[in-house]
Write a structure and sequence with these properties.
Protein name: DNA 3'-5' helicase
Helix content: 40-55%
GO biological process, one term: recombinational repair
Number of domains: 4
Enzyme class: isomerase
Shape: globular
CATH superfamily of the largest domain: P-loop containing nucleotide triphosphate hydrolases
Number of helices: 27
Keywords: ATP-binding, Helicase, Hydrolase, Isomerase, Nucleotide-binding
Radius of gyration: 29 Å
EC number: 5.6.2.4
Length: 765
């Protein structure tokens, strides 16, 4: 089969057709790709009557229903074709006109190819259709090249007069008089610099941010334009794995089209991601990845790689049920026959399965919130009855502060120690409690230990179970069983930073189907996470828990999800705090991510007069987005409080807008707007995200200590980085609940508005 090259942007066009129900068009494209691979040509489809000369070596074919397919011959010897565009006649004409004289340009820095204008030889072209109907008016009135840095301008080699003009040109001006702008640039300077600036206007107006960035880099290096005889090799190189995939086997083509999802992540991996997916590791490996770096994609691809390598079961483990469902969906989309070897579990269900394998029957129901409250009230009453309680730091705490303190201490102790080890809590040299600003002496620890034991016994006495009980029982039984064998050849864990130490200890004791300890075998354990996204106050050290990743720690620093503006605001929120990753003793500030080149609007801070207005503002904005064509499933409303989530759900219902809890519906293409907690939203991404209720006492929570502020900032960071394109943060301040302190941290990175009488009123900076 001749190679058929499939571009990432073409995948997006095909996915849009599939989602719009144009199955015959998709089938025709599939047939054309198979024919190009089998025969080295496409003869079953008619060529357009007048041919096509706007792009080099391009072929344009007629498809059913007046649709068009645009293909480029990238190797005349081997008849290799790259599929560039598919759409209706009008869209095809617009695409060809706006891409006239585009060529493949190799970056001088990383070797990646970009399809973009690089005008050097006199073949200038001014696109006819320049109207941008999607961007807000405020964006069209902003300078097109506002995102270029001083270094970028220096690289362009244009003179001061050209630069002064270029910095002022807005999107609206480019739409109205592109020809006049080009003439003026020519008058102010030389031909080449004027051509380069005009190329940048075209790319910025099209929001082709990656291409714009590369065009700046080759401002005076025309020699890097790829030659025809090397173009195919460049497209197939590892440097371009993120943008191209080559089908050179019809079975691979059939498998991909058979899934009918056309998800980018299934085909296109960044070279660094691909290396991590396919590498063999001699022991446990730790993947650190900034938010939006593709950790989940790497996990699923690696699970597939290991299932096909060993032909034995592997398991993906995560924290929440909504994330487990997402992993399950991604596995279903990606995998073929090997899918039967890949399971997805929450950490809770995984511990339950371990006990089941060891013939330990757990018939208890999950601990009900009401029962937990009764046990906590009993613990508080018992603690207050202790002689000397008033002399401890706990004696001066308010009721809510004491309750929160004890809840976290219980989870911390029970998440680190099995009941048979509880006495170790009394020895600070054996149990060095991190992340708590309140120091407790031995007497205070003895009091707490007494109520910890009472609380744990109370859980069992009610014939109920919680996560800490399940995991501790699994660890204790695993420690006693020397001859047991495991079910899985490999375990891959997401959001590892939020595990308890006993969770990690349990992982360290797992065995392969052959009885080998997973922590000691090749490719046995793969842990992924990001300390800056910690939303639970737990803490552990991998080595102490029995897992050694020394020399096997890899990282992903490039953010692919968020626009530059969203990530700037989110990162500035957490950049001043220190977080632990897989060692609670190692606190450090988060690494500066490699920001995406995509740009968009700054996040919005929306001030409302009361909660009713806040709910109305969000519901009305959602209604407006849907009217403009946004898919309902690509909108998520995150609210910390259950009451606020219920009110916004009802407001959507009143507007005939369907909604669903994210944990119940993880389909991004469904007709349901998603409503979620921060915890359930973790790991997901949406085109538009609303975060509600951002006032003191809610975000951050009431009565937090100074050392707890970082965790609350991390929770908001997680919520903010769910948004790919648009982000709205809403609040209704009152004397007792002013605007969240976190909003002040990101105020300079956001736009602000008031919601009054049904309208959004811009607050000038």
């Amino acid at each position: 089969m001749e190679a058929v090259i499939y571009t990432k942007k073409f995948n997006g066009y095909l996915r849009s057709l599939q989602e719009a129900g144009h199955k015959k068009i998709v089938q025709a494209v599939r047939a054309a790709m198979a024919e190009a691979g089998t025969n080295g040509s496409i003869s079953s489809l008619p060529r357009t009557k007048h041919g096509e000369s706007r792009l080099k070596n391009v072929e344009k074919f007629d498809l059913p229903g007046a649709y068009r397919l645009v293909v480029q011959l990238v190797d005349g010897v081997k008849k290799t074709r790259a599929f560039l565009f598919v759409g209706d006649h009008d869209d095809a004409e617009r695409w060809l006109d706006s891409h006239r004289n585009y060529t493949w340009v190799k970056s001088p820095t990383d070797g990646t190819l970009n399809f973009m204008p690089a005008t050097y030889d006199g073949n200038r072209h001014v696109p006819v259709d320049r109207l941008d109907l999607d961007s807000p008016e405020s964006e069209l009135q902003a300078p097109l090249l506002r995102f270029l840095s001083d270094d970028d301008w220096s690289n362009l080699k244009c003179n001061d007069n050209q630069m002064s003009l270029a910095k002022r040109i807005t999107g609206a001006q480019f739409e109205q008089d592109a020809d006049g702008i080009l003439v003026k640039l020519d008058e102010l300077g030389d031909y080449d610099s004027a051509s380069t600036l005009f190329d940048l206007f075209v790319l910025a107006h099209n929001k082709d941010w990656a291409e714009l960035n590369h065009r700046v880099l080759i401002a005076d290096e025309a020699s890097v334009v790829s030659e025809d005889n090397t173009l195919q090799a460049e497209m197939r190189s590892i440097a371009n794995a993120e943008h191209f995939v080559t089908f050179d086997d019809e079975g691979m083509l059939d498998e991909f089209f058979g899934k009918k999802t056309f998800s980018d992540w299934m085909l296109f991996l960044h070279p660094e991601q691909k290396k991590i997916v396919q590498r063999d590791y001699k022991g446990p490996v730790r993947l650190r990845g900034v938010s939006g770096s593709g950790k989940t994609s790497v996990l699923v691809h690696r699970a597939r790689f290991l299932a096909k390598k060993y032909h034995q079961p592997v398991v993906l483990v995560t924290l929440t049920e909504s994330m487990r469902k997402l992993l399950e969906k991604l596995v279903d989309e990606l995998c073929g026959a090997e899918k039967s070897l890949i399971q997805t579990k929450t950490m809770n269900s995984f511990a339950r399965d371990v006990l089941s394998e060891l013939q330990v029957r757990i018939n208890f129901a999950p601990l009900a919130p009401e029962a937990q409250q009764v046990l906590m009230e009993d613990a508080i009453a018992t603690l207050k009855d202790e002689a000397g309680f008033s002399k401890t730091p706990m004696g001066s705490m308010q009721e809510l502060e004491l309750r929160n303190f004890l809840k976290e201490e219980f989870e911390y102790v029970r998440g680190r120690l099995c009941p048979s080890e509880f006495e170790r809590y009394l020895d600070s040299s054996l149990f060095n409690r991190r992340g708590r600003a309140i120091a407790l002496n031995k007497s205070a620890r003895e009091m707490i230990l007494k109520v910890v034991v009472r609380y744990a016994a109370g859980v069992e006495s009610k014939r109920q179970q919680d996560h800490e009980l399940l995991v501790s029982q699994a660890v204790e039984r695993m420690s006693k069983e020397s001859g047991n064998v495991g079910q899985y050849r490999s375990v891959l864990v997401d959001e590892v930073q939020d595990l308890t130490e006993l969770d990690v200890v349990l992982l360290s004791k797992l065995k392969t189907p052959e009885g080998e300890v997973l922590a000691h075998v090749e490719n046995g354990i793969f842990l992924a996470g990001d300390g800056a996204q910690s939303i639970y106050k737990r803490g552990f050290a991998l080595k102490r828990a029995g897992i050694d990743v020394v020399g096997r720690s890899v990282s992903l620093k490039k953010n692919y999800r968020n626009t530059h503006e969203i990530l700037t605001a989110a990162f500035n929120l957490v950049s001043k705090f220190e977080f632990s990753d897989t060692d609670e003793d190692d606190l450090r500030r988060p690494s500066l991510p490699d920001f995406a080149k995509r740009h968009g609007e700054k996040p919005w801070l929306i001030q409302c007069q009361n909660q009713n207005d806040e709910v109305e503002a969000v519901a009305n904005k959602v209604q407006s987005l849907l009217a403009m064509g946004q898919t309902a499933g690509q909108i998520c409303i995150i609210a910390p409080q259950n009451r606020l989530r219920e009110e916004v759900r009802q407001a959507l219902t009143n507007r005939d807008i369907q909604s669903a809890e994210l944990r119940q519906d993880i389909d991004y293409e469904s007709d349901n707007v998603k409503i979620s907690t921060i915890e359930s939203a973790k790991g997901h991404e949406f085109a538009t995200v609303f975060i509600m209720g951002l006032v003191e006492g809610v975000m951050p929570q009431a009565n937090i200590q100074a050392h707890e502020e970082s965790r609350e900032a991390s929770r908001l960071y997680v919520a903010m980085t769910r948004a790919r394109e648009s982000l709205y943060l809403t609040y209704n301040p009152t004397p007792g609940y002013p605007a969240s302190r976190f909003l002040m941290s990101i105020q300079d990175d956001c736009k602000e508005a008031r919601y009054r009488s049904g309208e959004f009123q811009l607050i000038e900076a």
